[in-house]
Structures are given as structure tokens and as C-alpha cells.
Amino acid sequence: MNYRVQPTAQVDESAVIGDGSSVWELAQIRERASLGERCVIGRGAYVGTGVRMGDDCKLQNYSLVYEPAELGDGVFIGPAVVLTNDHNPRSVSPDGGQLRGGDWEAVGVRIADGASIGARAVCVAPLEIGRWAMVAAGAVVTKDVPDFALVVGVPARQVGWVGRAGVRLVERAGEPGVFECPRTGARYVEKAGTLTEA
Q1: Is residue 139 a contact partner of residue 150, using CB atoms and an 8 Å limit?
Q2: Contact 139, 118 (CB under 8 A)
Q3: pLDDT in tens, 25-69
Q4: 92: DSSP letter
Q5: Cα(108)–Cα(44) distance, rounded to whole angstroms?
Q6: Of 178, 10, 119, 192, nearest to 134 (Cα)?
Q7: 8 Å CB contact between 31 and 14
Q8: pTM above 0.90, yes or no
Q9: Please, are residues 39 and 56 in contact by the beta-carbon 8 Å criterion?
Q10: Rounded distance, CA 188 to CA 185, Å?
Q11: What domains does the chain contain, in order, with CATH numbers?
């Protein structure tokens, strides 16, 4: 075993934990979940049945990642983030009968490589969050987020672009649609609402 699990954590026998990963106190990893290499699962975090995570992901304390979520490589999930899995949640059917696990169809949140979800944000499935996108703390995301987009608020709306360093990009003077990262100098180009690396 080339990973670390604290004694108070619960990891199902069918879960796959990648080399170099750490599962901290009171975390729960459910059946058939799959974590890549070097992942960090914080205190009290929950990883649902069959959830798939890439390498180098971080789930901060008390984040809830419900099935069938899929996380790419290098995804950051902040403290107390919730990835939902039911667009029309109910405890009972229209006739009052209690709903069970097989009585509804789970829908998931897909998060692409490098994206970050800020503390206490809620991502309402089904939706996709693009590569290197950033969701601000406390945001409620109800629709897809493009690659490199910075979204804030309730409901979340795009207010700008971020680069791989997580810093808000600045449009270059005299070069419409050309953005630059103030930290790294990397350049990006926007065309028709899509940002790509130059």
C-alpha cells in the first residue's frame, strides 16, 4: 500500500486509491470510487460511489463529491464545496412513498483538468466545468463553465478569465481579444467567447 489512510477514515474495500495519496480523518470513500495518484482527501470529505478522480486532486475539508462526479487531473475542491447529483431532488414520490436509491437517475458534475472550485461553492448537476476554470467561493453554479472562465455569484456568472496560475487575466492594450497573465506572462486569445492558450 503506497498511500496513507488515517484510522478514522472509511475507505470501502472496492475503492481504488492511487500511489502517494492521503485520506485524512473522518473522510469517507465509497464503493468503486477511484482516486488517482497523489490525491489529498481532507478531513470529513465525502467521495461518492463510483466517483472518478484524476491525479493530483485536492478535496479540502468537508467537501461533498456525490456520484457520478468526474474530476480530471489537478482539480481543486475547496472546503465545504458540494457537487450535487439530483436536478429535481425529492424524498418521496408524488403519491407519498419514500424514494430509494434505485428510484431516481443520478446526474453528475464533470470538472476538467486544473479547474478550481472555491470554498462553500455549490455545483448543481448536471453541468461541466472547463479546464483551468475558477469558481469563486460561495458561488452557485447552474450552467456549464467554459475553459479558463472566472465565475462568481448566485447564480454564477462569468466576470473574466483566469490563466493556469489562477490569476485574473488582463487584456493587452491595443490588442483586443489578447489576454496576459500578470504572474507568468503567458498569453491567451479570446475568439467568439472561447479562450485558448496562445
Answers
A1: no
A2: yes
A3: 999 999 999 999 999 999 999 999 999 999 999 999 999 999 999
A4: B
A5: 21
A6: 119
A7: yes
A8: yes
A9: yes
A10: 10
A11: 4-162 (2.160.10.10), 163-198 (no CATH)
